[in-house]
């Protein structure tokens, strides 16, 4: 009798539903992109030095820079210096604008990476909630089946007992 009872109990326990385990997506790790920098002093090509004429205090041409008191440029060389200075300033301004534009694009990329991380967290939270709901549903379904089996068994036993009592009483 005990063996039958233990067998029925083992059968009832072994029929419990397994835990629901959904597919877990792979972890995506993306590092933010660092800001873009451009060093104007190192990166720009500097023009050749202009041809200079060194003069001493008596306005005589000298080759030694240390003995010279004046530096003279021809009109052509001076216009080259002014044009190169303007060109250099324009290049620096363009590069500053370029750096700002590239940094804006990097900020957009970093914002998208952050959005991806938030979406990944949302997916994980949804999977956790779904898993909990599915496990609770399966457990409730199992309990309902067990309750129905117990109720049916009780009704059958009462019916069989009534029939037996009726048969004895007749």
Shape, principal axes of CA atoms: rod-shaped
The helix-strand sequence is HHEEEH
The profile of the biggest β sheet is:
3 strands, antiparallel
Strand order of the largest sheet: 2-1-3
Structural class category: mainly alpha
* Total E-strand runs: 3
Number of discrete domains: 2
Task: Tell me the number of helical segments per DSSP (H or I, 4 or more residues long).
Answer: 3
Low-confidence stretches: none
Average pLDDT for all residues: 82
Helix content: 55-70%
Structure description:
- Helix content is 66%, strand content 5%.
- The protein is mostly helical.
- It has two domains: 27-118, no CATH class; 137-170.
- A three-stranded antiparallel β-sheet has the order 2-1-3, with no helix packed on it.
- Strand 1 and strand 2 form a beta hairpin.
- The longest helix has 95 residues, at 75-169.
- The protein is rod-shaped, with a radius of gyration of 45 Å.
- The two termini are 30 Å apart.
Short description:
With 170 residues, this protein is mostly helical.
